[in-house]
Write a structure and sequence with these properties.
50% of the residues lie in helices and 10% in strands. It has helices at 18-25, 30-40, 69-77, 82-88, 90-114, 123-131, and strands spanning 44-50, 59-65. The longest helix is centred in the last third of the chain and has 25 residues, at 90-114. The protein is elongated and about 50 Å long.
């Protein structure tokens, strides 16, 4: 699923370099972007924090990991990436968010297990949290 048209996805030439506009406008299946993220993800930092806004008063798992700048850019900013999924239809965006989390779930749970002493959540709680509709990948 993509933005309605590439024209809807404003890649303004005065703000976006030509090489970057080229790869952000290149059609790519969303599943391929997810595969790249999973493949590139290596060191994952995990902690459990109390939410200030969205999970106010509740503890939630938080993960931080690195991927290449281009994969990050395509995931968030391309006409075929994460935000474009929500732009097309919020239900599509929610579905794609769930797919991203499902793909990352084994890696994230492994990081949570290795760092279990750092968190106030059990592995089962982390797993359940990743499966909630309110869980976010972006």
């Amino acid at each position: 699923m993509v933005a309605s048209t590439l024209q809807d996805w404003n890649l303004n030439p005065t703000r976006v370099r030509n090489d970057r506009r080229r790869y952000l406008a290149t059609p790519i299946p969303f599943d391929s972007v997810i595969e790249a993220i999973v493949k590139e993800t290596q060191t994952i930092k995990y902690c459990a924090n109390r939410g200030d806004l969205e999970a106010k008063g509740h503890t939630r798992p938080e993960f931080l990991f690195s991927i290449t700048a281009q994969t990050y850019d395509v995931f968030f900013n391309s006409a075929f990436g994460y935000r474009a999924q929500f732009y097309t239809d919020h239900r599509v965006g929610i579905e794609r968010n769930s797919i991203v989390l499902k793909a990352l779930q084994p890696l994230l749970l492994s990081a949570a297990e290795v760092n279990a002493s750092r968190g106030a959540l059990t592995l089962d709680q982390v797993n359940k949290s990743l499966e909630l509709p309110s869980a976010k990948s972006g």
